[in-house]
Amino acid sequence: MLRDIERKVLRILWNYSHKHRGYMPSFSELSTKTGKYEKEIKFVLIKLAEQNFIIWDGWNTETIKIIRGWEDEPLNMPNQSFIGQG
After folding, report:
1. Residues 14-36: what's their mean pLDDT?
2. Rg (CA), the chain
3. Is the pLDDT of residue 78 over 80?
4. 49, 55 in Cβ contact below 8 A?
5. In Å, what is the CA distance from 47 to each residue of 10, 19, 26, 58, 69?
């Protein structure tokens, strides 16, 4: 189950990607929309990747790919969501 901030960030990513043809918001834009610092947003993105909601290289928000946009969607993908570990 997603925490509120995880759900909020996922919803922002989903809306941006659909409204702007795949464009993902920058850390600055995510910070403005959520009221959180970049460090907190990075932590949320890592958690979303660990839970297989997104794929992310761990550095740049432009590399984020949404796997599923809601908690209740079925998951048909192995846990390879966070590429930049280590």
Report:
1. 92
2. 12
3. no
4. yes
5. 11, 24, 18, 11, 14
Q: Which residue has the tokens 């659909």?
A: 18
57-66: pLDDT as tens digits: 999 999 999 9
| DSSP class of 85 | -
Average pLDDT for 40-66: 95
Q: Which two structure tokens, joined as six digits, stand for 43?
A: 């932590």
Name the 3-class secondary structure at 86.
coil
Half-sphere exposure in the Cβ direction for 3 (13 Å, CA): 8
The backbone region for 38, taken as left when phi is positive above 0, alpha when psi lies in -120 to 50, beta otherwise, is alpha
How many C-beta atoms lie closer than 10 Å to residue 86's C-beta?
5
Determine the pLDDT at residue 86: 47
Q: 42: closest CA among 57, 22, 20, 23?
A: 57
